[in-house]
Amino acid sequence: MSAMSALASPSAEPLLEIRNLTIRYREDDRQVTAARDISFALRRGGSLAIVGESGSGKSSVAGAILDFLGPTAEVTGSMLFEGQDIAGLAPAQRRQMLGWRIGAVFQDPFTALNPALRVGRQIAEPMVQHLGLPLPEALARAELALREMGIDRAAEVARAFPHQLSGGMKQRALIAAALACEPPLLILDEPTTALDVTVEAQILRLLSRLRREKGVSLLFISHNLSVVRRLCDDVAVMYASQLVELGEVHRVLERPAHPYSKGLLASRPPLAAASRGSRLAAIAGQMPTTAEPDAGCVFAPRCPFHEPRCSTGPQLLTITPDGHRVRCWKADALGPWPRQQVAAAAAPVFHRGDALVNVTQVSKTFDRSGGLTAWRLSVAGGRPLLYRSPKRVPAVNDVSFSISPGEVLGLVGESGCGKSTLGRLLLQLLRQSGGSVEFDGADLARLPAQALSPFRKQAQIVFQNVGSSLNPRLSVGEALDRPLALFRLAKPGDRTKRVEALLDMVRLPAAYRKRFPHQLSGGERQRVAIARALATEPRFIVCDEPVSALDVSVQATIVNLLADLRDAFGLSYLFISHDLAVVAQLSDRIAVMYRGRICEIGTAAEVLAPPHHPYTQMLLASAADDEPAPEPAAGMIAAATPGGCVFAARCPYTLGAVCDTTSPPLRPLTASHAIACHLDILPNAAVPPVFVHPDPQRAAI
Amino acid sequence: MAAYVAQRLGAVMVIMVAMSVLVFLATHALPSNAAALILGQYSTPETQAALEHKLGFDLPLPVQYWRWASHMLQGDMGQSFEMERPVAPILWDAFGRSAILAVGSMAVVSTLGLALGVIAAVWRGRWPDHAASIFTYFGVSLPEFYWGLVFILLFGSTFHLLPSSGYANLSDGLGGFIAHLVLPVATLTLTLLAHVTRLTRSSMMEALDSMYVKVARARGLPERLVILRHALRNALIPSITVLAQDFGFLIGGIVAVETVFAYPGLGRMLVGSLERQDLPMMQAAILVLTGVYCLANLAADLLYGVVNPRIRYGGSVG
Amino acid sequence: MAVRLAELTAAQFIRRRRRLPTSLVVGGTIVATLIVTAALAQWIAPYPYDEMHVRDRFQPPNLHYLAGTDEYGRDVFSRLLIGSQLSLALGATATLISMAVGVPLGLIAGYRRGVTDEAIMRVLDVMLAFPPIMLVLLILAVTPPSLLKTAIAIGVLAVAPIARVTRSVTLDLMSGEFMEAARARGERLHYMLLRELLPNVWPVLMVEASLRVVFAVLLGAVLSFLGFGVQPPAADWGLMISNGRAFVDTAPWISLAPGIAMSITVIAISLVGDGLREVLDPKVGR
Hints:
The structure holds three protein chains of three kinds.
Chain A (H helix, E strand, L loop, with lengths): L2 H6 L7 E12 L2 E13 L4 E5 L6 H9 L6 E9 L2 E2 L5 H7 L4 E4 L3 H4 L6 H13 L3 H14 L5 H6 L7 H12 L6 E5 L7 H18 L2 E6 L2 H7 L2 E6 L2 E7 H6 L4 H8 L51 E2 L5 E2 L30 E8 L10 E4 L6 E4 L7 E8 L4 E5 L6 H8 L7 E6 L2 E2 L8 H7 E4 L13 H11 L8 H11 L16 H13 L5 E5 L7 H18 L2 E6 L2 H7 L2 E6 L2 E7 H5 L5 H10 L33 H5 L5 E2 L5 E2 L26
Parallel strand pairs in A: 3-8, 3-9, 6-7, 7-8, 17-22, 17-23, 20-21, 21-22
Antiparallel strand pairs in A: 1-2, 1-4, 4-5, 9-10, 10-12, 11-12, 13-16, 13-18, 14-15, 18-19, 23-24, 24-26, 25-26
Helix pairs in contact in A: 5-6, 5-8, 6-8, 9-21, 15-16
Chain B lengths: L1 H27 L5 H6 L5 H11 L5 H13 L13 H36 L4 H15 L2 H15 L15 H35 L2 H8 L4 H38 L5 H10 L3 H29 L1 H4 L6
Helix pairs in contact in B: 1-12, 5-6, 5-8, 5-10, 6-8, 7-8, 7-10, 8-10, 9-10, 10-11, 10-12, 11-12
Chain C lengths: L1 H13 L7 H18 L1 H4 L31 H37 L1 H16 L2 H11 L4 H28 L2 H8 L4 H38 L10 H8 L8 H28 L6
Helix pairs in contact in C: 1-9, 2-4, 2-11, 4-5, 4-7, 4-9, 4-11, 5-7, 6-7, 7-9, 9-10, 9-11, 10-11
């Protein structure tokens, strides 16, 4: 049963019905329309996802319902909740409804909790306010709520302050607070975007369970389509302030009707090793910031199926008999989104002997903060004792691998695993605490400072954070000119031409030379960063999460660009990401990292197929849509016992003492594939069925 | 938390030592001839040399410092050159009178300043905010002594409401005592009030704009609760730092205000000792005033540590 | 965050069509007028500042003497104009000194971190441990006062806050990856500080500088008032207020006039500072 049937049979009154919602902001002297004529309905117990990229207006819709938008917003249309138009309510009544009948969870758990109040108190407050409970009872219920969220030490967590909890715990607490008064509707705005992939999977499982047990209806805002699949009955796709498709989740995700939906789904890399010649289907261009829907279809400039008729006038939503809506007159006649394929090159063979980058037993421990803060005062045992705090756990621990010329090694891991540190160690932006890094045969640590310059020319880096990787005070041309000048790669007169050539390589117009970073979109800034890395004519580039901060459709274009550059210039990459699918698209080999150690390394095909390291298995399960193997109770990420396997605390297959005391070495399974685990991965009845994932995304779209 | 306290205590001790060295060195670099001053008309090269030897001025500097510092720690502040009496009792008397001004002023500034700042932030853009803005602009645009004169003019000379100078003992009557305090305290308060109001306002606005306040509203909590419990708590934490900083300005203000109102406090004593190059008095006064400031900062740091949950409860839970 | 701030300013620099905040326009105009008047004071002033008109002593403001005369028959208005030279010069010099010393210290402390940072911060802590006026008095008491010495003393006092602000902005900027990208090219220290960091630090420093000028002018007035700054018969505003104390009942304009002049100057400079802050981040201060 879908939400659509609620409209087909008007007797079943929907819980939430939005009709012709239009949201406009007054910004300086201009008016920006964030959402245009949005209509949808959500039945009791159902769940609807609103999907779109940044700037599509999806968050504004949630904001309008929650009265979150501030005085500069103008909201027209009706928002019927339980039959009542909440847009027309007086502020006091509106506010009363929030928290009691409508709960909300937001994207960033780090700022959504008040740092000065205990967590339990913040969960109890709405209960005191709306249900009239006395505070002690509300606090007791808050503790129960935390337990329901899967938190074992609920009493401790309730008494804790937000800064003492991890991101996943904070989000669970926020969900508990939102559900405190058992509202019929829960609105979630990108609740898992800021969390690690495995934590995200846990939160989604939790939400699924809560839905089943309490029958709460969900309105789920996200940019992540696979997340939506697990949790929602229906999906609404938004593009440039308009609703372009609305229907049952399986229908939309497997047989999308609108070209944008097709493009969005097609540009998502499949979770499989890709051949060198394959490229992701990408949507050219970027979402317009000011849409003119009256002039024609807003998506037309980027649409491969576009015809002159698409740009003649406003496009209307067509409704099919089963309630599916599409804003495209051609929807029925369209085929799949066109795929790109570059001429299939023979898979290159890499000989371990001629490595370009050779990392041997590299470790990095950050020194404890110096000075007086390192000293600790302990009064245990009745006598004051002054001692120095123990050294920190190494960020990178005994890592070895090599990268051949022209090869791409993907490095996958979640936040805090040390992959960024490792990337910087390779470039000697940080000095390693132990081990050696060799480039082209030379041990970098032994080189005198002057000799590092030729190395620096040959090894470059592209960063994740598009907001701060370019100096805001330098124009694009100046930023690209500098490396040319520094390494004397072109005579002063020729530099302009070189800069334009670089811009051309990353598919930006030459006129961008004069622009400043703030005038560029995220994808464009990243291209400039890539151009800057290319300027020195390097042989090796460390790509540190280069696409993580970008929208899905833009990610695909950047990944394709990196692949093209690799082929054109024979570049090697260390491609770092937390997203296994993206890594698999570009990498010849993949290394999986956890807490400073490499758990598994092998060719992309080998790593993605069983047998797996238990952590790899967990990552794959989180990335795909299946119920992964159960984990120990939430939030109990105990520190690894020194000397033992770093993953032991979270591992569902732990063998007991041996895993806690001895760190497993990397054991080779084949010439190229090695796994660091005590389990005998090869046929062993004790291990649960080997993980095989049917990937629905790979079905022809 | 314990680590934080230990660190702050250690830092304060180091600073006090460094500061005493600086004070000592600076004052001993005075070109004046202290001995000549004391001897006055009886000064000849021989008597000067004899007195210098007696006062220990011919000893190496570190030794002099050590003697001076150890005496100070025992409470012996030496003899005033000018008044030929022990410094300590005079100084502590004056200190007491200055303390009354300081405490009165800080009390008003902390309560009124924080309140005005919060009100300005909550009613941002409306008349309370504008009124506060105008007030703070004028408050910070003129030095205390100027306001002091204005007050004397208005309340003292023109309307004869309040005495414009001096000090009356508490034992001589509460009325007189308070009357002599009103103008000096008001003058001190005015400039500091503007500063504290401004900073509290911006810190409160930041709290009101924060995500957690928006979330609290989205949970349907009434505005009064949101302001008082959610925003205020976070806004007041940085205010402690502001107040500590203001204590330093207060000390500067005391020097000027006591001069304007001829109030017999430590500030006036300090100015006098500087004019007359009375070395022991000068050193003691500077040391005491700076020491009090250090301790005030320490108290503020410790209070900050208690009030800020991040410091009080470091570490993590799960 | 500092990267965001720097971005916003870059944005302003680019957009030619930009609405300047009123505070900046008003304050800037007044400040510009003050500077011009101060520069031309010698020519604008109706009378020399030390010329005594013995028969016209204690005149209230009138057509001949716009702000009246003081106890020696000197024209207060002329003295105000000449005094503006002293105040502005003091404010500017003290601020320049403090920035010349404080900015490099802050940049290096923030860039190098480690032992250098700790050492610099400890020294700054000791300087900040003194109540502002104590430090200045300590310096001034030791040597015969003059305008330059006062400027140096106040400048030294302001080094610590400026260094601190610079350091904290630098630390913020250091977390931006464009700095790492520069190091990945092997850039040297002077390039990093001058070409990558400094252009991003300027906006915040400009705001801070306006605060420092105000502070210097006010502190200079206090010092002159107490007798430790400029010496008579100079036409310093603080000194004029001090002289006028004795006559505040009978001839209040002697003290009030310099106060009004000072408040206009300080408010104007504060407006400029606030306007700059608005340009940097329109949300702050609203």
